[in-house]
Input
Amino acid sequence: MRHLPKHLRPKWRYLAVELETRAGASIDRRGFQREAWYAGQNLLGDPGSANADLSVVRFRFDGRRGEAIVRVRHGEVDRARAALACVSRIDDVRVGLRVAKVSGTIRAAEDAF
Output
């Protein structure tokens, strides 16, 4: 199977997301991905959530604070930010999220941390 030409490939934006919760909490990548999908589906509906295509690319959490990089389609950044703002719990642990930076590459998004 051949790759698509560059002008036909989807364009992505990467959201650098900071997570904060109480000390000693345990949050994993799978739980964060699940809650991001649910938030997108509940706020945007099935077609909107499919268009945004929220995917966790990188995830790190160490007890109280964490970072994640979420991949989103180019024109859906505002909707994705709104969906992530709806996440208040991950695996029954209260959590606060903040989008620190929006960038066109993963490397630039990692520089936000």
